[in-house]
Every structure is written in C-alpha cells, then in structure tokens.
C-alpha cells in the first residue's frame, strides 16, 4: 500500500515537472515570435507561429478572414471528398471547379484541411494540389482525429464533422459537400454511426448536401439526426434525397423552396442560440440521375465485398466509393461531380441570403 502511494506521488511529481517545463516553453514562445497587437497587447490573430500551441488554432486564409470581417458570404468545403472520395486528377479538377462555382455565385470558398499540423480554413492552390495528390496517404480526420493530426504535424483531410469544427472556429456558417455520413447498414449491431451525425447535433453550421448515399441506412440516419436535434430540410422537394437518386422513400422532416427560406431557418436557429447544425438536402439534378439504378446495384455489390474482405470503420466509405466508380466505369464519379457543383451553387446562394439578412437585421 505504502509502495503504491509512493509510486503515485513520484508519478504526480514527474507530471508536474513536465507541466512546468511546458509552461516555460510557452513563455519562451511569446518572447520569440509573439507578434502582439499594438492596441490590445494580445497575440495578433494573423500572426503565424510555429509553436504547437498556437498552430493548433484554426487558421483562416487572409481572403477568408477579410470576407468574414466584412460580413461577406463564405462557404466552407471539406477535403475528405478530395483525398478519399475521388481519384487524382479528377479530385483536384473537381475541387478547383467547386471553388470556382462558389466564386461565380458570389461567395468566397474556404476549403478546410490540416496542413502540416496546422488546421486551415481556406487553402492555396498548391495546398489543395498536395492533398489531391496525396489522396489516401492523407489521414482521414473526423473530430476525433483533429488533435492527433495537429499534434503530430500531419496533413489530414477533414470529413464533414472535422470541417464543421474548423468552419465554426473560423466563424463560417455555411458548408457545402456531396454527401454526409450516416448510420451504416447493420449499424444497430456494429454501432458504425458516422461522427458527422453527432457533430451536426452540437455544432451550429449549415451543411448543404445531396442527402445520404444508399450505402447507408437512410431511415436510421434520419432517426439519429432527430435524436440529436438536427434541423433537416429537403430543398425544393418533400422527399429526403439519396445522393445518386432524387428519391429515398423517406419523407424529409421539413422542406424549403429557396435560398432565402433556407437562410431564414439558419438565422432563426442562431437567434434561438441553438447549438445544433442544419442539413439542407438538395436532390441531384434530374439530368444526372439517369444511371441511379445501375449505381445502386454497384453499391450493393461493393457493400457485400466489404463484408467479405472485413473492411471496417473509416475505411468502409472510401472503399465503397472507389469500387462503385470502378464498377460503373466512372459514371458514378460523373454524377458525384455534377451534384457537388449543384450544391456549391445553392450553398453560395444560401450564404449570400444569410449575409443579406444579417446586414439588414431582418
Ligand atoms: N459520402 C460521400 N462522399 C464522401 C464522404 C461521404 O458521398 O467523400 C466522406 C465525408 O467526408 C464524410 C465521411 O464526412 O465520408 C464520412 O465517413 P464515415 O462514414 O467514416 O464517418
Ligand atoms: Mn464509421
């Protein structure tokens, strides 16, 4: 007993000395590179510091920071869809086209990722290219993985959940992607439920997507979203869309018919100080839905393969996406690209309406 107590005391003393050493290092950092704001004496938010403590803060690009400061519309974009969702070079081309679509619609794009340990909101073209080329050599980071990626100086692509965390930290309210994660088929037994759903319950960012893929259990996904208090609206339709197809067989809990209506929902949640996020599910444009049934069949086959090959956890979604693209000879990829661009246009319009509502205070 005494021995155990002595060991515990030694451990506490050793931890305390580490903490003191860290505090000294932090002080040194301030002396070294703590460019401070002349007026407030605080470390200037735009200063880049190489210290791990400072670099763990979300860092917005100058363009994004300036847009936010002047209440201009900004649209966050994720990077897992680039690194793990599509092959190179289509992934880079799509990422650049999606950013251009957001700009053409009058908003500033802010692609999110962790680059060499720094959480970033708004990437340069070179950084986007690095992530696109690295592909699955990037860490696929959900909220869970952010600290490990930043602390370890890694380059990580962010999923919907991690992108929401970074967007919120930077003050970005609207985020566009292809599809969100959900409850996997059989999730009631495996507990494989995407962290995206819990993030949507705790982080106030509006996610514009094409619904959830039928590789997931759509009914249970909607149930979990309700449990977590997530606002879910289908856009211009009554039915919750299923990514490659406009219909899922599940009615959406609510419907909006314009960017202004969506912005009003977002603003109302904000005024109520609700912490949860929103999902605006935009159906794939009809002209790109033609191969919906073929793609569905490929999805079922790919899912059976994951069971046979014992692919689990965060590797399931990237595997299925890759196999479905192969099995449909690239047709699923084409549809995927078309729907993301459509979402980008609508997301930018929602961000614009939201900025206008806030300017007018109405
Ligand atoms: N659905 C897609 N394409 C994707 C993803 C989902 O159609 O690229 C990505 C998103 O980044 C999403 C993540 O947040 O997969 C969910 O992964 P998981 O199922 O491991 O939670
Ligand atoms: Mn999972």
Give keywords.
single chain, 362 residues, alpha/beta, Indigoidine synthase fold, 2 domains, eleven-stranded mixed beta sheet, 12% strand, binds pseudouridine-5'-monophosphate, binds manganese (II) ion
Which fold name is given in CATH as the topology of the largest domain? Answer: Indigoidine synthase fold
- At the fourth CATH level, what is the homologous superfamily of the largest domain? Indigoidine synthase domain
Instruction: Provide mean pLDDT, rounded.
Output: 87
Bound molecules: pseudouridine-5'-monophosphate, manganese (II) ion
- What characteristic shape results from the CA principal axes? globular
CATH architecture of the largest domain, by name, is 3-Layer(aba) Sandwich
State the share of residues found in helices, binned by percent: 40-55%
Q: What is the number of E strands?
A: 11
The number of helical segments is 15
- Low confidence ranges: 6-55
| Main sheet: strands, sense, barrel | 11 strands, mixed
